[in-house]
Specification:
By secondary structure, the protein is of the alpha/beta class. It contains seven helices and five strands, in the order βαβααβααβαβα. About 40% of the residues lie in helices and about 20% in strands. β4 (about 115-120), α6 (about 125-140) and β5 form a beta-alpha-beta unit. The model has no long low-confidence stretch (mean pLDDT about 95). Bound molecules: flavin mononucleotide.
């Protein structure tokens, strides 16, 4: 059982989103999953050029990390998408990744996998973003099992409050 988490924050492993994802992955690991995190700090997955090659040939011709990330996902059983709230939506890095999945979507290439979403924000509005990520997962063939989010402006200190931690651990377990 392999689970890939994709973090689309330029703040990487030290960012809020990666830290919340880490708790979800702890839950998954507690049930025996092997986990891996892929960071999209920018420029690793470029925006879609609408060249249509992915529909015709099944691969994107752009020379970046997208195809290798796609292969990793194809070899995995579970996929967690983690994004900060950037202006009521996902980050540009996550949107570029989603757009590049156009070929994946057209043949539902991730069919049979299970997924989840993780969102953090400064002041709120996470649910529509988590729903958007999970709806995207459905279009790829992935079956979402839930989501977790945190409003960082309401949290003092480094650790997530117990209720959010417990939701995140539970999500990781459910995913497995
Ligand atoms: C460009 C940008 C846009 C943001 N837009 C919002 C927003 O619309 N609403 C909100 O609540 N927080 C917003 N935030 C705050 C981030 O969502 C929040 O700090 C998040 O936890 C950052 O996650 P990270 O540490 O993983 O990057 C924004 C931050 C940035 C840098």
């Amino acid at each position: 059982m392999k689970i890939i988490g994709i973090v689309a924050s330029p703040r990487g492993a030290r960012g809020n989103t990666a830290r919340l994802l880490q708790v979800v992955l702890e839950g998954a690991e507690s049930q025996g999953a092997e986990v891996e995190v892929v960071f999209l700090p920018g420029r690793t997955v470029l925006p879609c050029k609408a060249c249509d090659t992915c529909h015709k040939k099944g691969r994107c011709p752009q020379k970046d990390d997208f195809e290798s990330i796609k292969e990793k996902i194809l070899r995995s059983d579970g996929l967690i998408l983690a994004s900060p709230n950037y202006i009521f939506s996902v980050s540009a890095q996550m949107k570029a990744f989603m757009d590049r999945c156009c070929g994946v979507i057209h043949c539902m290439a991730f069919e049979g996998k299970y997924g989840a979403s993780v969102v953090t924000s400064g002041v709120g509005d996470e649910k529509p973003i988590a729903d958007y990520l999970n709806n995207f997962l459905i279009t790829t063939g992935t079956r979402p099992v839930g989501s977790v989010w945190a409003t960082m402006g309401t949290i003092s200190g480094e650790d997530f409050p117990l209720d959010i931690r417990s939701q995140a651990l539970g999500l990781g377990k459910k995913l497995v």
